[in-house]
Design goal:
Chain lengths: ~130, ~120
């Protein structure tokens, strides 16, 4: 089965990114595919490369990045939601005259249409709310 | 590909920063994909259809645009309205009120359900 996943919560205040990761790992382990993982609402914060986790605490963002690389899963971040929360690609950092780009390189800046496209074309669309 | 039935379920109150407006954005983008799109307002979400009269952050005014988009139908959970002292005719847009049984049937008949 082909899954699309949406993540609405950030790692600091919600279990959403962690639960979604466990779901994604289980799906791949069972031989399913993941069409796209879309980070929306506060979930875009998972893609913020400036976040530093204290030692000994789970680094969900790093785990997502590792998972995506290992299994070739696309991680997409909604551009409008990301701008509101300081997650910027190089283009936006330049356009809005911000000092740094903050998006983790494994995550792609995307548009909402890509989430709808994923929801429509996947066999199942699973949302992890905040 | 046959159009898929997509239901957006709005169950949170409007005043939560950008969340309500982001959900509206999502719904409007969904509506241009030529699918069978509908919306359900339930629990605290029914407040999103109450026009507060404010000019800023008034998501009810955003939802007024729905009829010009290709959204098949807007539903509300009748029980949620009643519990909050609201009536269908006090909402910003025309809606169809459903019983809890009707809500269950609606959700069960969808291909995709998108919560807020």
């Amino acid at each position: 089965m082909n899954f699309a996943i949406a993540i609405h919560g950030d790692a600091a205040t919600s279990e959403s990114p962690r639960l979604a990761l466990r779901f994604a790992r289980a799906a791949i382990a069972k031989g399913h595919r993941i069409h796209r993982v879309f980070f929306y609402h506060a979930g875009v914060s998972v893609a913020n490369s400036l976040v530093v986790q204290p030692q000994g605490e789970a680094d969900t963002a790093a785990e997502w990045a590792g998972f995506a690389k290992e299994h070739g899963v696309e991680l997409a971040v909604c551009v409008a939601a990301a701008l509101r929360r300081g997650v910027l690609g190089q283009d936006d950092a330049t356009r809005y005259e911000r000092a740094v780009a903050t998006v983790h390189p494994v995550f792609q800046i995307a548009r909402l249409g890509q989430m709808i496209e994923a929801a429509i074309s996947a066999d199942r669309f699973v949302t992890f709310c905040a | 590909m046959t159009p898929r039935r997509i239901l957006f379920v709005i169950s949170h109150a409007p005043r939560r920063g950008a969340l309500a407006l982001e959900m509206l954005d999502e719904l409007l983008v969904g509506a241009v994909f030529e699918q069978e799109v509908s919306a359900l307002f339930i629990d605290e979400g029914v407040f999103q259809l109450v026009d507060s009269g404010d000019t800023q952050g008034n998501v009810a005014r955003g939802y007024r645009a729905l009829p010009t988009y290709d959204v098949s139908e807007v539903f509300v959970d009748a029980d949620s309205l009643k519990k909050r002292g609201l009536a269908v005719d006090s909402l910003a847009i025309p809606v169809r009120a459903l019983t809890r049984g009707g809500v269950r049937k609606l959700v069960a008949g969808q291909d995709v359900v998108v919560p807020d």
